[in-house]
Design brief:
Chain lengths: 622, 417
């Protein structure tokens, strides 16, 4: 018994120790991480972010060096804060605050104290750096812009926020990430890969050489250069034309879906969002809630498309077989569909068939066609849903699936929409209740890029390529099926010719007669879209939006364009002129009609935009 | 040496010894090498020195095996006296290393007499207990046995080296084997349990809890006319003990001692201060995983995060670089050696050899438990080496001497009657 007890004690001890070892080494995994943390220092080597070129190889964005002052809080030693602050031109409170934040974030992991010093600030600080233990300088690169336009397309880069760091462990405090536009969408291509150097440390936190003979170290991989589809010259020109106006211009190459220009106005210079001045500038732009310079109207602005939509109404009519090109409808300053209900129209000769109907933009003609295509079906619900199916095949009413970092769906109503609006089945509704859709008003909303895409689909006689911004990565042209495979509309090819003829006559004898360009066959459509806004909770009607779509040349389309000018009144007043100039610039490379150009450049709509905020009663459509 | 003696040597024990020494040196090498080229003449390196210590221990082994068994028994008293004298001599000629005056310096070489005193004490105790006239059940003889054990311990404590003094608790093993009443064991175990309970909770709660338990036992046994006075006396003694433990802990102990207990009991978390060693050692072991980071690949070991890693904390290197499998192997080797020695001790025909054998088991066991317990964070920090593993010449020689005297005694058992 006595002998046994000693054996027992010894064996029990052995079991207890093995159990303890099992707990420490196998069961509890936190030790391995702790070990990693305290024995290895990780240094990062930041690669060059990829450059961005325009479609003609013009350099748009490169890099410039920048220097961040970093701190590892637990390595801080007392230092001359006064000197430190005066070198960096910051207040002591700010320094104390930053150091506190860094310590809370992690005592061992580096945090940024002062981001993005310029070269000069860095040169001065570098000499003094040895006095400040625990601080070091991390070199990064900032963007350097060689263009003053396209800021909405290019986007910008900024320091990652805490949320992003948690989501993707690749990013560390102070790292830069694309926040908008191409920079955001192609972040992974542009950023490259950080190089990692691991340094073995001893317990005094001294470096004692590379960890495992650099076995796990990696070299930085430079970011890839992007070529985007934008034509910088055209983009800049469009932006110049848009000065003192609000709205968007989107121009596509119908044969590829490449976005030639994506203009929003008002805009800002891309260099405003670089470096230390990024934050105050961004705040200023962000809080301009009236002109909204950060709001990309080209892809996010949802407007009633107005008359250009009539082309779709006509195409659906032909496809559904409820009208042919010869039938005429009369117009008596509008279309009467109820006792007091009337869709008004301007004065023109009457009656009109399809082609002059488009050229003269007769509301009554399209109201008739629209009603027939809905009423062809037993119920207005079926009719509307069938209509929507056709409309959507032009890329309207939904995201286009492009490679832009933002966008809007627009709106193409379906039966559910009207059932809800008219409280069906308590009340019934009929096709006439949705009559405004015929002329692109009512519930229909579209973004400029959707309209440009719709125009491209018409130009191509029935198909389009999803609009996209990427042309080549590191010189290799992209091969993304979504962008290289045509998407067909529900309308047969042969129905497009009369519509295109109508659109051509808009220029030769219709609403845009004054905007012809010598030697180019243009097809286009003016639009004048009624719109409303809310100022201080009060709904009021504003001056109509000036809308224009066009493509050219007629038989071999090289450009499809949509122009929206907020409160520009009728279609050819602003949008038409701008579209015409853009087409001439793109196809001819220069402008012959300098008087037209001067008119656009010298006319401002700022007064118009100030009206609703003046607090005084105002008149619209003057 | 006669041929028969060599055959009679317990080669299994020798094999275990060699395995531990060899693996131990490998880990010392890993824990103390830098970027330098391996050179046998670079005496600034612990692993070089340890290699020489190991080589020289062969001399000790040969001497212990050459000496007649009778010598140990006959001169046990004298050896003990010399050993005590060498311990006392430290107060006059000792060299202060790291705050402890426990070394004699011979040029660059230091010797630690306390490492050899263990073997001497074991011999003296064996001699005393094997005396025909000694009866372990007499209080008088018990006191004398305690005196032999306590004398070196009491000299070592003020050096100060409380860790080495603690080792003398190991002589419980032979005393118990030779028939010391189990009451001592029970009292010892109870006192230890109460000590920990009092630190974990307050003395009041402990006393209250025990009171309630005793009351329940009383109620259960009331039909058998329990002796109430005994219950009461026990409770009073326990109460006194608990409160005095509380008092001693808070008023007599120094803060560093309190900290060591508090950290193990989980009452304090302080990874940078006093608990740093233990914490770093646990990180090193814990980061080893199943198979470890590989020899010389331990990041914690290489970074020198664990202080005293090649001496007292050498086991953390094993844990980090050889993982669970390696560390478990070492534990099993030790348990194997201890069980083998226990078995050998029991088969001795002479009481002298048996007591000595049990002493060897006890000493190795206490070192093993206290050291591995400390390194894995199960026990408070007490700085004593892991036998055969830790760096240190005196320690290595002391353990070698201790073990091989027993191997000699064992090999001669056939001649004992």
């Amino acid at each position: 018994m006595r002998k046994l007890l000693l054996y027992l004690i010894i064996i029990t001890t052995g079991i207890v120790f093995i159990a303890r070892l099992f707990y420490l080494q196998i069961y509890n995994t936190s030790f391995a991480a702790l070990s990693e943390d305290n024995a290895i220092k990780v240094l990062y080597d930041y690669p060059q972010r990829g450059a961005i070129y325009d479609r003609n190889g013009k350099l748009l964005v490169t890099n410039q060096p920048s220097y961040d002052v970093m701190v590892i809080p637990r390595e801080l030693k007392p230092f001359d804060t006064l000197e430190f602050c005066s070198i960096l031109k910051i207040s002591k409170e700010k320094l104390v605050n930053q150091l506190h934040k860094a310590r809370v974030y992690s005592p061992r992991v580096p945090s940024v104290v002062i981001p993005q010093l310029t070269k000069d600030e860095y040169a001065y600080l570098q000499e003094k750096m040895r006095k400040f233990d625990g601080f070091y300088i991390q070199k990064r690169s900032l963007r350097d812009y060689h263009t003053e336009s396209a800021s909405n397309v290019l986007g910008y880069i900024a320091e990652v926020n805490d949320g992003l760091i948690k989501k993707d462990p690749y990013y560390l405090s102070g790292d830069l990430i694309g926040m908008q536009g191409v920079e955001k969408q192609y972040e992974n291509e542009l950023r490259g890969l950080k190089g990692i150097k691991r340094i073995q440390k001893d317990r005094f936190n001294r470096d004692i050489g590379p960890y495992k003979n650099r076995k796990y170290d990696t070299l930085p991989v430079n970011g890839k250069d992007l070529t985007i589809t934008i034509d910088e010259e055209l983009q800049s020109y469009g932006q110049k034309l848009m000065e003192n106006k609000r709205g968007g211009i989107v121009a596509l190459d119908p044969s590829t879906g490449e976005i030639l220009t994506l203009i929003t106005a008002p805009s800002y210079k891309p260099e405003l969002l670089v470096g230390r001045k990024r934050s105050p500038n961004y705040t200023r732009l962000h809080y301009d809630s009236i002109s909204k310079p950060l709001f990309d109207r080209g892809v996010k602005g949802e407007y009633p498309p107005g008359s250009p939509f009539k082309a779709i109404t006509a195409l659906i009519g032909l496809q559904e077989g409820i009208v042919d090109t010869k039938e005429s409808f009369s117009c008596n300053h509008g279309f009467r569909y109820g006792k007091k209900a009337k869709l008004g129209c301007h004065s023109h000769r009457s009656p009109l068939s399809m082609i002059p109907g488009i050229a003269q933009s007769c509301n009554a003609y399209f109201a008739n066609v629209y009603l027939r295509s809905i009423n062809k079906y037993d119920t207005p619900q079926e009719g509307i849903d069938n209509w929507k199916k056709h409309v959507e095949s032009f890329g309207l009413g939904n995201y286009l699936g492009n490679d832009l970092s933002s966008g809007s769906k627009g709106l193409i109503p379906n039966s559910k929409f009207y059932n809800k609006q008219y409280k069906y089945p308590t009340y019934k509704w009929y096709a006439t209740a949705t009559i405004s859709n015929a002329i692109g008003q009512g519930a229909v909303l579209a973004t400029p890029i959707q309209l440009a895409n719709m125009t491209a689909a018409i130009a191509n006689r029935g198909y389009f390529y999803t609009p996209h911004i990427i042309k080549a990565i590191d010189g290799q042209p992209i091969n993304i099926e979504n962008f290289t495979k045509p998407k067909y509309t529900t309308i047969n090819k042969e129905h497009f010719e009369p519509i295109i003829e109508g659109l051509h006559q808009v220029y030769t004898q219709g609403t845009a007669k004054s905007l012809q360009i010598e030697g180019i066959d243009i097809c286009g459509k003016t639009g004048t879209a009624e719109n409303y806004t809310k100022v201080n909770g009060e709904r009021m009607q504003l001056t109509d939006h000036s809308v224009f779509i066009a493509f050219a040349p007629k038989d071999d389309p090289k450009i499809a364009i949509a122009v929206f000018i907020e409160n520009g009144y009728w279609g050819s007043r602003y949008a038409g002129k701008i579209a015409s100039l853009m087409i001439e610039q793109h196809i001819k490379g220069s402008i012959s009609r300098t008087d037209l150009e001067d008119w656009v450049l010298t006319h401002s709509l700022e007064e118009e935009y100030a009206k609703p905020y003046s607090g005084e009663p105002f008149k619209i459509n003057q | 040496m006669a041929r028969s003696t060599i055959v009679a040597i317990d080669w299994l024990t020798v094999l275990l010894f060699l395995l531990l020494i060899g693996f131990g040196w490998g880990n010392i090498y890993s824990a103390s090498y830098g970027d330098e080229v391996f050179s046998l003449t670079d005496f600034s390196r612990p692993y070089v020195k340890q290699l020489y210590w190991i080589a020289l221990s062969v001399i000790i082994i040969i001497i212990t095996q050459a000496i007649e068994t009778k010598f140990y028994e006959r001169f046990a008293g004298l050896i003990f006296v010399i050993s005590i004298a060498s311990l006392l001599g430290l107060f006059l000629f000792g060299k202060n290393v790291n705050g402890a005056t426990s070394w004699y310096a011979f040029g660059p070489v230091g010797l630690q007499p306390s490492e050899f005193a263990k073997a001497a004490t074991a011999l003296a105790l064996a001699k005393f207990l094997s005396d025909m006239q000694t009866n372990i059940n007499l209080i008088n003889h018990q006191l004398r046995a305690f005196l032999i054990i306590a004398l070196p311990a009491l000299i070592i404590i003020p050096q100060p080296d409380p860790g080495s003094a603690l080792v003398y608790a190991a002589f419980f093993f032979p005393l118990y084997r030779e028939g010391l009443a189990a009451t001592y064991l029970i009292i010892g175990a109870s006192a230890g349990t109460l000590f920990i309970l009092t630190l974990l909770f307050t003395p009041l709660w402990v006393v209250l809890g025990i009171g309630i338990i005793m009351l329940m036992i009383l109620i259960k046994n009331r039909k058998h006319k329990p002796r109430y006075s005994r219950y009461l006396l026990t409770l009073i003694v326990i109460t006194g003990f608990c409160f005095s433990v509380n008092y001693i802990f808070n008023n007599v102990f120094e803060q560093r001692h309190r900290d060591r207990f508090n950290i193990v009991l989980g009452k304090e978390v302080d990874s940078k201060g006093i608990g740093y060693n233990t914490n770093q050692s646990q990180i090193a072991i814990g980061s080893g995983g199943w198979t470890g980071k590989g020899w010389k690949e331990g990041t914690q070991t290489k970074g020198g995060f664990v202080p005293e890693q090649h001496t007292d904390y050498i086991f953390s290197t094993v844990g980090e670089e050889w993982g669970f499998l390696g560390a478990t192997t070492v534990v099993i080797l030790f348990i194997g050696l201890l069980i083998r020695l226990l078995y050998l001790a029991e088969r001795q025909k002479s009481q002298f050899s048996r007591v000595y054998g049990y002493s060897v088991v006890g000493i190795l066991f206490v070192h093993f438990v206290v050291n591995v317990g400390m390194v894995t964070g199960l026990l408070p920090t007490v700085g004593i080496p892991l036998p055969f593993f830790s760096y240190g010449g005196s320690g290595l020689w002391g353990f070698t001497l201790l073990l091989f005297i027993f191997i000699k005694l064992d090999s001669n058992r056939v001649n004992e009657w």
